[in-house]
């Protein structure tokens, strides 16, 4: 069975899936994040997801559309659709804990499990970007997450087309081990069925 907790040594965070897409019928995903001193992620934005950050211990650092915020327990920070954002631990000595609601769930769990799996297998660069162009395209496509500084339409066209080719070439099969369940009695059937990942052009 899939472990509810995953770890990313680059971002220095440990993520526990408290409520998954399967649990909520796709309405949302709820995760708890344990973030080491100085840990965090780079700036990005989502075209279909809203994220709500709720510190348990803190403060939690949030950069949101060029504003730097410190969010304390009892407060909530919201990153709307298309907002450029990142989270980080401003402390250099204390580990912090916070919850994140992702609405709707979309492919969040699938994307995160693949991304963390690639990191732990040494298949990414120092910024966490997959070394394989096929894996990079599939990951960006699944997550509907994009980078600043490159026009959105261009990222969608390029990553969408490359993800389509990657699927046709079977490159997505190498990623299945990160997000599907154990094989049943060694057969080719999975305990957890795949989320629809038909690429959009």
UniProtKB/TrEMBL annotation:
This is Cupin domain-containing protein. It holds the Pfam family Cupin_2. InterPro entries: Cupin_2, QDO-like, RmlC-like_jellyroll, RmlC_Cupin_sf. Transmembrane segments: none annotated. Residues 32-98 form the Cupin type-2 domain.
């Amino acid at each position: 069975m899939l472990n509810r907790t995953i770890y990313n040594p680059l971002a220095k965070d440990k993520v526990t899936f408290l409520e998954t897409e399967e649990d909520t019928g796709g309405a949302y995903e709820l995760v708890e994040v344990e973030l080491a001193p100085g840990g965090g992620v780079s700036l990005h934005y989502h075209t279909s997801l809203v994220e709500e950050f709720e510190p348990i211990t803190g403060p939690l650092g949030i950069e949101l559309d060029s504003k730097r915020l410190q969010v304390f327990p009892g407060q909530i920070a919201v990153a709307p659709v298309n907002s450029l954002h990142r989270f980080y631990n401003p402390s250099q000595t204390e580990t912090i804990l916070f919850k994140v609601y992702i609405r709707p769930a979309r492919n969040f769990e699938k994307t995160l499990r693949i991304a963390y799996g690639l990191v732990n297998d040494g298949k990414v660069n120092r910024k966490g970007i997959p070394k394989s162009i096929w894996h990079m395209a599939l990951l960006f496509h699944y997550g509907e997450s994009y980078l600043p500084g490159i026009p959105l339409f261009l990222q969608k066209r390029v990553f969408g087309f490359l993800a389509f080719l990657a699927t046709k070439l079977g490159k997505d099969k190498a990623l299945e081990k990160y997000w599907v369940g154990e094989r049943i009695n060694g057969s080719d059937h999975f305990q957890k069925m795949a989320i629809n990942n038909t690429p959009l052009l």
